[in-house]
Protein backbone atom coordinates (compact mmCIF):
# COMPACT_ATOMS: atom_id res chain seq x y z
CA UNK A 1 0.00 0.00 0.00
CA UNK A 2 1.54 3.39 -1.02
CA UNK A 3 2.49 6.25 1.27
CA UNK A 4 1.39 9.86 1.07
CA UNK A 5 3.12 12.75 2.80
CA UNK A 6 0.51 15.34 1.84
CA UNK A 7 -0.24 15.79 5.55
CA UNK A 8 3.42 16.69 6.10
CA UNK A 9 3.43 19.38 3.40
CA UNK A 10 0.16 20.84 4.67
CA UNK A 11 1.53 20.95 8.21
CA UNK A 12 4.73 22.61 6.98
CA UNK A 13 2.76 25.25 5.07
CA UNK A 14 0.60 25.90 8.14
CA UNK A 15 3.82 26.56 10.06
CA UNK A 16 5.13 28.88 7.34
CA UNK A 17 7.82 26.49 6.09
CA UNK A 18 8.75 25.57 2.54
CA UNK A 19 10.50 22.29 1.76
CA UNK A 20 14.01 23.71 1.96
CA UNK A 21 13.34 25.28 5.34
CA UNK A 22 11.82 22.04 6.60
CA UNK A 23 14.89 20.12 5.44
CA UNK A 24 17.24 22.47 7.28
CA UNK A 25 15.13 22.60 10.46
CA UNK A 26 14.84 18.81 10.66
CA UNK A 27 18.43 18.17 9.61
CA UNK A 28 17.54 15.66 6.89
CA UNK A 29 19.41 15.06 3.64
CA UNK A 30 18.43 16.15 0.14
CA UNK A 31 18.02 12.46 -0.66
CA UNK A 32 15.45 12.05 2.11
CA UNK A 33 13.64 15.21 1.02
CA UNK A 34 13.56 13.86 -2.53
CA UNK A 35 12.03 10.56 -1.38
CA UNK A 36 9.42 12.38 0.71
CA UNK A 37 8.53 14.60 -2.26
CA UNK A 38 7.92 11.49 -4.35
CA UNK A 39 5.89 9.72 -1.64
CA UNK A 40 8.56 7.06 -1.21
CA UNK A 41 9.45 5.23 1.99
CA UNK A 42 12.05 6.80 4.29
CA UNK A 43 13.76 5.52 7.42
CA UNK A 44 11.95 5.90 10.72
CA UNK A 45 14.71 8.13 12.13
CA UNK A 46 14.05 10.62 9.30
CA UNK A 47 10.40 10.84 10.32
CA UNK A 48 11.44 11.14 13.97
CA UNK A 49 13.64 14.16 13.18
CA UNK A 50 10.83 15.78 11.20
CA UNK A 51 8.33 15.22 13.98
CA UNK A 52 10.75 16.61 16.57
CA UNK A 53 11.18 19.74 14.45
CA UNK A 54 7.43 20.16 13.89
CA UNK A 55 6.39 18.99 17.36
CA UNK A 56 3.99 16.39 16.01
CA UNK A 57 3.40 12.64 15.77
CA UNK A 58 4.33 10.39 12.85
CA UNK A 59 0.66 9.85 12.01
CA UNK A 60 0.39 13.64 11.62
CA UNK A 61 2.79 13.63 8.66
CA UNK A 62 2.11 10.42 6.72
CA UNK A 63 -0.72 8.13 5.75
CA UNK A 64 -1.42 5.08 3.63
CA UNK A 65 -3.61 5.78 0.62
CA UNK A 66 -4.60 4.26 -2.69
CA UNK A 67 -3.90 5.67 -6.15
CA UNK A 68 -2.03 8.74 -4.94
CA UNK A 69 0.25 9.28 -7.92
CA UNK A 70 -0.70 10.80 -11.23
CA UNK A 71 1.80 8.48 -12.90
CA UNK A 72 1.46 5.48 -10.62
CA UNK A 73 1.14 3.13 -13.61
CA UNK A 74 4.43 4.22 -15.14
CA UNK A 75 7.18 1.91 -14.04
CA UNK A 76 10.42 3.84 -13.88
CA UNK A 77 13.30 3.71 -11.45
CA UNK A 78 13.44 6.80 -9.26
CA UNK A 79 16.31 5.67 -7.03
CA UNK A 80 19.24 8.05 -7.37
CA UNK A 81 22.77 7.16 -6.22
CA UNK A 82 24.35 9.21 -3.45
CA UNK A 83 27.35 11.35 -4.37
CA UNK A 84 30.21 12.02 -1.98
CA UNK A 85 28.71 15.47 -1.41
CA UNK A 86 25.56 17.22 -2.58
CA UNK A 87 25.70 19.25 -5.78
CA UNK A 88 25.57 22.88 -4.69
CA UNK A 89 23.70 24.65 -7.44
CA UNK A 90 23.29 28.23 -8.66
CA UNK A 91 19.97 28.62 -10.49
CA UNK A 92 19.57 31.53 -12.92
CA UNK A 93 16.30 32.57 -14.60
CA UNK A 94 14.69 30.31 -11.99
CA UNK A 95 11.07 31.22 -12.69
CA UNK A 96 8.62 29.35 -10.48
CA UNK A 97 11.23 26.63 -10.00
CA UNK A 98 10.12 23.82 -12.31
CA UNK A 99 13.68 22.82 -13.22
CA UNK A 100 14.88 23.36 -9.66
CA UNK A 101 12.15 21.10 -8.27
CA UNK A 102 13.28 18.29 -10.53
CA UNK A 103 16.91 18.79 -9.56
CA UNK A 104 16.11 18.94 -5.84
CA UNK A 105 14.30 15.62 -6.20
CA UNK A 106 17.58 14.07 -7.36
CA UNK A 107 19.73 15.52 -4.60
CA UNK A 108 20.83 18.93 -5.95
CA UNK A 109 21.14 21.66 -3.31
CA UNK A 110 20.03 25.09 -4.57
CA UNK A 111 22.36 27.58 -2.85
CA UNK A 112 21.29 30.60 -4.91
CA UNK A 113 18.33 31.30 -7.18
CA UNK A 114 17.48 34.43 -9.14
CA UNK A 115 14.67 35.89 -11.20
CA UNK A 116 13.27 39.31 -12.02
CA UNK A 117 9.55 38.54 -12.41
CA UNK A 118 7.57 39.09 -9.23
CA UNK A 119 4.89 36.39 -9.76
CA UNK A 120 7.58 33.76 -10.35
CA UNK A 121 9.53 34.92 -7.30
CA UNK A 122 6.43 34.86 -5.12
CA UNK A 123 5.68 31.27 -6.10
CA UNK A 124 9.30 30.14 -5.75
CA UNK A 125 9.48 31.55 -2.22
CA UNK A 126 6.17 30.00 -1.24
CA UNK A 127 7.02 26.52 -2.47
CA UNK A 128 10.79 26.07 -2.64
CA UNK A 129 12.84 28.60 -0.72
CA UNK A 130 14.89 31.76 -0.87
CA UNK A 131 15.33 33.50 -4.22
CA UNK A 132 17.07 36.74 -5.09
CA UNK A 133 14.94 39.30 -6.92
CA UNK A 134 16.80 41.42 -9.42
CA UNK A 135 18.30 42.02 -12.84
CA UNK A 136 20.70 39.20 -13.65
CA UNK A 137 23.02 41.62 -15.45
CA UNK A 138 23.60 43.36 -12.12
CA UNK A 139 24.72 40.20 -10.30
CA UNK A 140 28.35 39.99 -9.21
CA UNK A 141 29.43 36.33 -9.48
CA UNK A 142 32.22 36.95 -6.97
CA UNK A 143 29.62 37.65 -4.28
CA UNK A 144 27.63 34.45 -4.83
CA UNK A 145 28.17 31.09 -3.08
CA UNK A 146 30.55 28.56 -4.57
CA UNK A 147 28.74 26.01 -6.69
CA UNK A 148 29.22 22.63 -8.35
CA UNK A 149 26.46 23.29 -10.86
CA UNK A 150 25.12 26.33 -12.70
CA UNK A 151 21.71 25.99 -14.38
CA UNK A 152 19.90 28.56 -16.48
CA UNK A 153 16.78 28.45 -18.61
CA UNK A 154 17.52 31.78 -20.27
CA UNK A 155 14.47 33.61 -21.71
CA UNK A 156 12.92 31.68 -24.55
CA UNK A 157 10.61 34.35 -26.00
CA UNK A 158 13.16 35.65 -28.55
CA UNK A 159 13.47 32.14 -30.04
CA UNK A 160 9.88 30.90 -29.86
CA UNK A 161 7.13 31.15 -32.44
CA UNK A 162 4.91 32.71 -29.79
CA UNK A 163 7.58 35.36 -29.19
CA UNK A 164 7.92 36.25 -32.90
CA UNK A 165 11.45 34.78 -33.04
CA UNK A 166 13.36 38.04 -32.80
CA UNK A 167 16.38 36.11 -31.58
CA UNK A 168 19.50 38.10 -30.83
CA UNK A 169 17.84 41.30 -32.07
CA UNK A 170 15.82 41.14 -28.86
CA UNK A 171 17.99 42.15 -25.87
CA UNK A 172 16.71 39.07 -24.03
CA UNK A 173 18.22 36.91 -26.76
CA UNK A 174 21.71 37.60 -25.43
CA UNK A 175 21.04 36.78 -21.79
CA UNK A 176 22.71 33.38 -22.21
CA UNK A 177 25.93 35.43 -21.89
CA UNK A 178 25.05 35.99 -18.22
CA UNK A 179 25.22 32.23 -17.65
CA UNK A 180 28.65 32.18 -19.30
CA UNK A 181 29.76 35.09 -17.14
CA UNK A 182 28.86 33.07 -14.05
CA UNK A 183 30.79 30.07 -15.37
CA UNK A 184 33.91 32.15 -16.01
CA UNK A 185 34.09 32.94 -12.31
CA UNK A 186 32.61 29.87 -10.59
CA UNK A 187 34.09 27.05 -12.74
CA UNK A 188 31.26 24.63 -11.86
CA UNK A 189 31.59 20.91 -12.54
CA UNK A 190 28.35 20.92 -14.54
CA UNK A 191 26.39 23.46 -16.57
CA UNK A 192 22.79 22.95 -17.68
CA UNK A 193 21.06 25.37 -20.06
CA UNK A 194 17.53 25.09 -21.44
CA UNK A 195 15.51 26.72 -24.21
CA UNK A 196 12.80 26.17 -26.81
CA UNK A 197 13.47 24.21 -29.98
CA UNK A 198 13.43 27.43 -32.00
CA UNK A 199 16.93 28.02 -30.64
CA UNK A 200 18.23 25.32 -33.00
CA UNK A 201 17.21 27.24 -36.11
CA UNK A 202 18.00 30.74 -34.87
CA UNK A 203 20.86 32.51 -36.64
CA UNK A 204 23.24 35.32 -35.77
CA UNK A 205 23.41 38.42 -37.96
CA UNK A 206 26.29 36.88 -39.94
CA UNK A 207 24.19 33.84 -40.79
CA UNK A 208 25.90 31.43 -38.41
CA UNK A 209 23.79 29.29 -36.08
CA UNK A 210 23.30 30.67 -32.60
CA UNK A 211 23.43 27.20 -31.01
CA UNK A 212 26.94 26.72 -32.45
CA UNK A 213 27.98 30.04 -30.92
CA UNK A 214 26.64 29.05 -27.50
CA UNK A 215 28.39 25.67 -27.66
CA UNK A 216 31.69 27.27 -28.71
CA UNK A 217 31.57 29.87 -25.94
CA UNK A 218 30.69 27.25 -23.34
CA UNK A 219 33.45 24.93 -24.53
CA UNK A 220 35.93 27.75 -23.97
CA UNK A 221 34.47 29.29 -20.80
CA UNK A 222 36.62 29.18 -17.67
CA UNK A 223 38.56 25.90 -17.52
CA UNK A 224 36.70 24.58 -20.60
CA UNK A 225 33.74 22.24 -20.95
CA UNK A 226 32.70 19.16 -22.92
CA UNK A 227 29.35 20.22 -24.33
CA UNK A 228 26.43 18.27 -25.72
CA UNK A 229 22.92 19.36 -26.60
CA UNK A 230 19.77 17.52 -27.59
CA UNK A 231 16.15 18.25 -28.40
CA UNK A 232 14.06 16.36 -25.86
CA UNK A 233 10.34 15.63 -26.04
CA UNK A 234 8.84 15.90 -22.56
CA UNK A 235 6.31 13.11 -23.12
CA UNK A 236 9.22 10.70 -23.63
CA UNK A 237 10.13 11.33 -19.98
CA UNK A 238 6.83 10.97 -18.16
CA UNK A 239 5.39 14.45 -18.78
CA UNK A 240 1.79 14.39 -20.12
CA UNK A 241 2.55 16.98 -22.78
CA UNK A 242 4.13 17.03 -26.24
CA UNK A 243 6.56 19.78 -25.32
CA UNK A 244 9.99 20.07 -26.95
CA UNK A 245 12.97 21.62 -25.21
CA UNK A 246 16.63 22.01 -26.10
CA UNK A 247 18.83 20.91 -23.22
CA UNK A 248 22.53 21.85 -23.21
CA UNK A 249 24.83 20.08 -20.76
CA UNK A 250 28.47 20.99 -20.19
CA UNK A 251 30.84 18.87 -18.10
CA UNK A 252 34.08 20.53 -16.95
CA UNK A 253 37.00 19.28 -19.04
CA UNK A 254 38.95 17.84 -16.10
CA UNK A 255 36.05 15.58 -15.06
CA UNK A 256 36.13 12.09 -16.52
CA UNK A 257 32.50 11.99 -17.64
CA UNK A 258 31.33 11.71 -21.23
CA UNK A 259 27.78 12.86 -20.61
CA UNK A 260 25.01 10.92 -22.31
CA UNK A 261 21.43 12.15 -22.43
CA UNK A 262 18.92 9.82 -20.78
CA UNK A 263 16.99 7.30 -22.81
CA UNK A 264 13.19 7.80 -22.82
CA UNK A 265 11.55 6.61 -19.62
CA UNK A 266 7.94 6.42 -20.83
CA UNK A 267 6.94 2.91 -21.82
CA UNK A 268 3.17 3.43 -22.19
CA UNK A 269 2.11 6.74 -23.69
CA UNK A 270 -1.55 5.98 -23.03
CA UNK A 271 -0.83 6.70 -19.37
CA UNK A 272 0.07 10.30 -20.28
CA UNK A 273 -3.28 11.14 -21.86
CA UNK A 274 -5.21 14.28 -21.01
CA UNK A 275 -7.79 12.15 -19.22
CA UNK A 276 -5.14 10.57 -16.99
CA UNK A 277 -3.40 13.87 -16.31
CA UNK A 278 -6.43 15.77 -15.06
CA UNK A 279 -8.22 13.04 -13.15
CA UNK A 280 -8.84 13.25 -9.39
CA UNK A 281 -8.23 16.99 -9.12
CA UNK A 282 -11.33 18.01 -7.17
CA UNK A 283 -10.43 19.54 -3.83
CA UNK A 284 -6.78 20.15 -4.74
CA UNK A 285 -5.17 23.59 -4.42
CA UNK A 286 -5.92 25.91 -7.39
CA UNK A 287 -8.50 23.57 -8.97
CA UNK A 288 -11.27 26.16 -8.55
CA UNK A 289 -9.19 28.84 -10.28
CA UNK A 290 -10.11 29.10 -13.96
CA UNK A 291 -9.14 32.05 -16.16
CA UNK A 292 -12.28 33.10 -17.98
CA UNK A 293 -12.25 33.25 -21.77
CA UNK A 294 -13.10 36.38 -23.71
CA UNK A 295 -16.73 36.58 -24.90
CA UNK A 296 -15.57 35.89 -28.47
CA UNK A 297 -13.59 32.80 -27.47
CA UNK A 298 -16.41 31.57 -25.25
CA UNK A 299 -18.75 31.75 -28.23
CA UNK A 300 -16.34 29.97 -30.58
CA UNK A 301 -15.44 27.00 -28.41
CA UNK A 302 -19.03 25.80 -28.17
CA UNK A 303 -18.67 24.67 -31.80
CA UNK A 304 -15.48 22.68 -31.14
CA UNK A 305 -15.94 19.00 -30.21
CA UNK A 306 -13.53 16.97 -28.12
CA UNK A 307 -10.44 16.42 -30.27
CA UNK A 308 -11.40 19.25 -32.63
CA UNK A 309 -10.13 22.74 -33.43
CA UNK A 310 -11.16 25.99 -35.09
CA UNK A 311 -11.66 24.04 -38.31
CA UNK A 312 -14.90 22.75 -36.79
CA UNK A 313 -16.29 26.26 -36.33
CA UNK A 314 -18.84 27.25 -39.01
CA UNK A 315 -17.36 29.83 -41.39
CA UNK A 316 -20.07 32.38 -40.66
CA UNK A 317 -19.21 32.27 -36.94
CA UNK A 318 -15.53 33.09 -37.45
CA UNK A 319 -14.17 36.59 -36.79
CA UNK A 320 -12.92 38.37 -39.92
CA UNK A 321 -9.26 37.63 -39.19
CA UNK A 322 -9.90 33.90 -39.06
CA UNK A 323 -12.07 34.04 -42.18
CA UNK A 324 -9.10 35.49 -44.08
CA UNK A 325 -6.91 32.66 -42.85
CA UNK A 326 -9.55 30.01 -43.63
CA UNK A 327 -9.79 31.45 -47.16
CA UNK A 328 -6.07 30.91 -47.78
CA UNK A 329 -4.88 28.10 -45.51
CA UNK A 330 -1.80 27.35 -47.62
CA UNK A 331 -0.51 30.88 -47.31
CA UNK A 332 -0.87 30.77 -43.53
CA UNK A 333 0.64 27.26 -43.20
CA UNK A 334 -2.63 25.68 -41.99
CA UNK A 335 -2.60 26.92 -38.39
CA UNK A 336 -4.46 24.84 -35.84
CA UNK A 337 -6.07 27.46 -33.60
CA UNK A 338 -8.37 26.57 -30.71
CA UNK A 339 -7.11 23.00 -30.46
CA UNK A 340 -9.15 20.99 -27.96
CA UNK A 341 -7.25 17.80 -27.19
CA UNK A 342 -9.30 14.68 -26.58
CA UNK A 343 -9.07 12.74 -23.34
CA UNK A 344 -7.19 9.89 -25.05
CA UNK A 345 -4.59 12.25 -26.59
CA UNK A 346 -1.43 13.73 -25.09
CA UNK A 347 -1.83 17.47 -24.67
CA UNK A 348 0.09 19.98 -26.78
CA UNK A 349 2.47 22.56 -25.38
CA UNK A 350 1.18 24.70 -22.53
CA UNK A 351 2.44 28.21 -23.31
CA UNK A 352 2.91 31.24 -21.10
CA UNK A 353 0.27 33.14 -23.08
CA UNK A 354 -2.45 30.66 -22.12
CA UNK A 355 -4.57 31.75 -25.07
CA UNK A 356 -6.79 29.28 -26.96
CA UNK A 357 -5.54 30.59 -30.30
CA UNK A 358 -2.04 29.14 -29.95
CA UNK A 359 -2.07 26.87 -26.93
CA UNK A 360 -3.66 23.55 -26.02
CA UNK A 361 -5.40 25.19 -23.09
CA UNK A 362 -9.04 24.13 -23.62
CA UNK A 363 -10.67 21.50 -21.42
CA UNK A 364 -11.60 18.41 -23.48
CA UNK A 365 -15.31 18.38 -22.61
CA UNK A 366 -16.10 21.54 -20.65
CA UNK A 367 -16.33 24.93 -22.38
CA UNK A 368 -13.50 26.59 -20.46
CA UNK A 369 -9.77 26.82 -20.08
CA UNK A 370 -8.02 24.22 -17.99
CA UNK A 371 -7.88 25.22 -14.34
CA UNK A 372 -4.60 26.32 -12.78
CA UNK A 373 -4.25 22.88 -11.18
CA UNK A 374 -5.00 21.08 -14.44
CA UNK A 375 -2.29 22.89 -16.40
CA UNK A 376 0.07 22.36 -13.46
CA UNK A 377 -0.66 18.63 -13.77
CA UNK A 378 0.02 18.76 -17.52
CA UNK A 379 3.34 20.45 -16.72
CA UNK A 380 4.03 17.69 -14.10
CA UNK A 381 4.07 20.01 -11.08
CA UNK A 382 3.30 18.05 -7.90
CA UNK A 383 -0.11 18.56 -6.33
CA UNK A 384 1.65 19.93 -3.24
CA UNK A 385 2.89 22.95 -5.22
CA UNK A 386 0.42 25.73 -4.41
CA UNK A 387 0.31 28.62 -6.87
CA UNK A 388 -0.14 31.97 -5.15
CA UNK A 389 -0.72 35.57 -6.18
CA UNK A 390 -3.58 37.94 -6.88
CA UNK A 391 -3.51 37.62 -10.68
CA UNK A 392 -4.91 34.41 -12.13
CA UNK A 393 -3.37 35.12 -15.56
CA UNK A 394 0.07 35.35 -13.94
CA UNK A 395 -0.38 31.83 -12.55
CA UNK A 396 -0.97 30.51 -16.06
CA UNK A 397 2.10 32.43 -17.22
CA UNK A 398 4.51 31.11 -14.59
CA UNK A 399 3.31 27.55 -15.23
CA UNK A 400 3.61 27.92 -19.00
CA UNK A 401 7.11 29.39 -18.71
CA UNK A 402 8.37 26.57 -16.49
CA UNK A 403 10.49 23.56 -17.30
CA UNK A 404 8.37 20.51 -16.43
CA UNK A 405 9.70 19.31 -13.05
CA UNK A 406 9.59 15.68 -14.18
CA UNK A 407 11.84 16.51 -17.15
CA UNK A 408 14.21 18.34 -14.81
CA UNK A 409 14.23 15.31 -12.55
CA UNK A 410 15.22 12.97 -15.38
CA UNK A 411 18.05 15.31 -16.44
CA UNK A 412 19.21 15.65 -12.83
CA UNK A 413 19.16 11.90 -12.29
CA UNK A 414 21.24 11.29 -15.42
CA UNK A 415 23.87 13.78 -14.24
CA UNK A 416 24.06 12.31 -10.74
CA UNK A 417 24.28 8.75 -12.05
CA UNK A 418 27.12 9.57 -14.42
CA UNK A 419 29.06 11.56 -11.82
CA UNK A 420 28.61 8.77 -9.28
CA UNK A 421 29.84 6.18 -11.76
CA UNK A 422 32.98 8.27 -12.25
CA UNK A 423 33.58 8.34 -8.50
CA UNK A 424 32.36 11.83 -7.58
UniProtKB/TrEMBL annotation:
<dbReference type="GO" id="GO:0009307">
    <property type="term" value="P:DNA restriction-modification system"/>
</dbReference>
<keyword id="KW-0489">Methyltransferase</keyword>
<dbReference type="GO" id="GO:0003886">
    <property type="term" value="F:DNA (cytosine-5-)-methyltransferase activity"/>
</dbReference>
<dbReference type="InterPro" id="IPR050390">
    <property type="entry name" value="C5-Methyltransferase"/>
</dbReference>
<dbReference type="GO" id="GO:0003677">
    <property type="term" value="F:DNA binding"/>
</dbReference>
<keyword id="KW-0808">Transferase</keyword>
<dbReference type="InterPro" id="IPR010982">
    <property type="entry name" value="Lambda_DNA-bd_dom_sf"/>
</dbReference>
<protein>
    <recommendedName>
        <fullName>Cytosine-specific methyltransferase</fullName>
        <ecNumber>2.1.1.37</ecNumber>
    </recommendedName>
</protein>
<dbReference type="InterPro" id="IPR001525">
    <property type="entry name" value="C5_MeTfrase"/>
</dbReference>
<dbReference type="InterPro" id="IPR029063">
    <property type="entry name" value="SAM-dependent_MTases_sf"/>
</dbReference>
<dbReference type="GO" id="GO:0044027">
    <property type="term" value="P:negative regulation of gene expression via chromosomal CpG island methylation"/>
</dbReference>
<keyword id="KW-0680">Restriction system</keyword>
<dbReference type="InterPro" id="IPR031303">
    <property type="entry name" value="C5_meth_CS"/>
</dbReference>
<feature type="domain" description="HTH cro/C1-type">
    <location>
        <begin position="8"/>
        <end position="61"/>
    </location>
</feature>
<keyword id="KW-0949">S-adenosyl-L-methionine</keyword>
<dbReference type="GO" id="GO:0032259">
    <property type="term" value="P:methylation"/>
</dbReference>
<comment type="similarity">
    <text>Belongs to the class I-like SAM-binding methyltransferase superfamily. C5-methyltransferase family.</text>
</comment>
<dbReference type="Pfam" id="PF13443">
    <property type="entry name" value="HTH_26"/>
</dbReference>
<feature type="active site">
    <location>
        <position position="156"/>
    </location>
</feature>
<dbReference type="InterPro" id="IPR018117">
    <property type="entry name" value="C5_DNA_meth_AS"/>
</dbReference>
<dbReference type="InterPro" id="IPR001387">
    <property type="entry name" value="Cro/C1-type_HTH"/>
</dbReference>
<dbReference type="Pfam" id="PF00145">
    <property type="entry name" value="DNA_methylase"/>
</dbReference>
